[in-house]
Structure formats: C-alpha cells, structure tokens
C-alpha cells in the first residue's frame, strides 16, 4: 500500500438497481452510495434517488452505479443535490454509470450537476445500452468552480466520456478532457463556467429536433436516426436554466409525462 493511501481513506460506493414493469426486482448498495425511493406524483413512474451519503468526493474516491430496466419497465432516476468534487492531493475521483434499458422500457436518468472545486480531479464515464423500442432521456452537467462563492476552477483536471449502444451496436461516443487552460482558451470553453449535455434515444427522436433547437438556441443535433443531442455552454446559471427548461419539455413531448422537473430538483 502506498503511503498516501494509508494516510487518506478512500470511499468506494456501489449501487445496482433492477426494475421490472411491476417495480423493483433487485437492489444492491454499498456505502456511501445509497438509493432512496420517493413517492411518485400522479402520472409519474417509479422514482429513485442516488445519494452519496459522504456529501462529496475527494481525490481517489470512486462511485459506481448500474441501472437496469427490464422490458416494459418505467423509471426516473435522479439525485437530491449537486455532486461536489473536492480539491485533490493528487488522485482522481471516479464516477461510473452503466445503464441498460430493455425493449419497450423508458428510463429518465437525470442527475443534477457535478461541481468541481478548485483543485478537483474527476474521471466520469457513462455507458448506456438501449434496446429496440426503448427510450432513454438523460442529462449530465459540470460546473467549473464554486461560482456562487466567487471561486473558479483554476487547478485540476476533468475527463468525461459517454458511450451509447442502440440495438446492440455502438451508436455514439463522446469524450472530453479539460484543465484550467482549456477552460479559458478561446478555441475551447472560452471562459465558460459550466457545460451540459442532454440526449434522447427514442425511435421517433427526429420529431423533436425543432423543439430541441428552440430549447438550446440551435445547439441540438440528430447525429443518427433515433438519437437527439442537446448541448449547453455558458454561465452556471444559464446552463442549469437551459437544462431545467429542456427536461419538462422533452419528457412531455417524447414520453407523454407531466411537463415538470423531478421533484428533488426543486426541493
């Protein structure tokens, strides 16, 4: 064991949730990652909240979640608050999410933003497998610094990666590597405080392209049939406002659900 590992305890949380048409089929969790199940509002599917009971992630910590929906299942998975990434003494914090959406199922994966404190190091990777006739509405966002406190993210590094499989084949992959220089460079983020991504994997995704363009000021694309992407870049407030407007609009248009945010986003 390295001296640094002996000095600093690392958190390694895990959660696995399997949902069928009738509700929860299997549940496994290991602290500090927990799953809570708020009572859904009328017209809403089963709700699950991923909770990091440690309150944040330090360098070397790792959280892993696996979400599996059986054919025909319906669910919404979110988080009760932003995920905080604390300054690191060297190691990188790891977030891993694996998603499986069975045939005819629909999953809304809508975590709130991750906030990088100055000096934080993050490696976040999400992999999703969406079966024929299934739907996935997902978002992720990243805030570069504790903006409300006047703290910018000037030290550290962040890596983000998405891999989406449709009908058993890799349909889209995205990767991003950031440091403070990239944040400020005119050819990179040009000083933006935050960035965000939403995706809709749906058999009729193309029907919602114009809505997505309106929601993002044109920053939406249809890279292949059945996949709609929305991107957000700007101040932390503008990115959150964009995502909180897009979620109700898309879940109503694509899923026929109430045009509302997850309740935990507004508590």
UniProtKB/TrEMBL annotation:
Main location: cytoplasm
Subcellular location(s) of the protein: Cytoplasm
UniProt keyword terms in alphabetical order: Chaperone, Cytoplasm, Nickel insertion
InterPro entries linked to this entry: UreD
GO molecular function term, any single one: nickel cation binding
Pfam family, one: UreD
Entry keyword annotation includes RNA-binding: no
Record-level GO cellular component terms: cytoplasm
Family statement: Belongs to the UreD family.
Subunit structure: UreD, UreF and UreG form a complex that acts as a GTP-hydrolysis-dependent molecular chaperone, activating the urease apoprotein by helping to assemble the nickel containing metallocenter of UreC. The UreE protein probably delivers the nickel.
Role noted for this protein: Required for maturation of urease via the functional incorporation of the urease nickel metallocenter.
HAMAP family with a match to the protein in the record: UreD (MF_01384)
Annotated protein name in UniProt: Urease accessory protein UreD
